[in-house]
Amino acid sequence: MSNDISTSSSYLDSITWQDTQVATTEEESDALTQEDFFSLLTQQLSYQDPSNPADNDQMIAQMTNFTMAQGITDLNTNFESLASSMTSNSALQASTLVGKQALLESNTLELGESGEAKGSAVAEEAVDNLTIKVTDASGQLVRTIDMGTQAAGAVRFSWDGNNEAGERLPEGEYTITAEGSTNGEFSSLPVATFKNIESVNINGSSGIIINTKEGAVRLTDVAEIA
């Protein structure tokens, strides 16, 4: 009984394989190749009326149209190959970003178990008495960093993770604010902090997307990778 089942299965598989081969052959035969075109052109010339030969301009137009169509097909194939190669290269480059840090506009500072937490304040013009204030989850001010007078541009700062008494604070998220005076008037400044890149993905329309604890952002919106 088992032999009959095996034989029947093999027979059905062979039929399926033959059907697939026939379908594939028929699909391939639908395409008009350059050899097919010139074969048809030769047939056309062999059956033409000697007293009324084919118009040379018409023949040249037919050959030109076919050549252009073939060229466009080859160009599309090359573009597809190039796009595939570029996607592969982008994926390879994106994979190297995982584990690094991205500087993003955010007032949340991530403090690890050890080491410093870094960020940047952006001054549109020179500022005096620039200060960076760090508060914990309860809103309590735990550290003030005096940056003094700074020129316009991005002003880097780092926090050692200690409070005013020099004691190491627990790891976690802290909130930072930046404030400085220009022409005697104090104002808040935008800040950016480094976020750990947890993963990346590639979006056809948006390019490379990096994922951090705070969410996803396009690579083009990242100020710096460290």
Mind explaining what this structure looks like?
- The protein is an alpha+beta fold and 226 residues long.
- It has 2 domains: 2-95, no CATH class; 101-225, Immunoglobulin-like.
- The chain is 36% helix and 36% strand.
- It is built from 3 helices and 13 strands.
- The protein has helices at 2-29, 34-46, 56-95, and strands spanning 101-105, 108-111, 117-123, 127-135, 141-150, 153-159, 172-182, 185-189, 191-196, 199-203, 207-212, 215-218, 224-225.
- The chain is elongated, with a radius of gyration of 35 Å.
- 13% of the residues are buried.
In short:
By secondary structure, the chain is an alpha+beta fold.
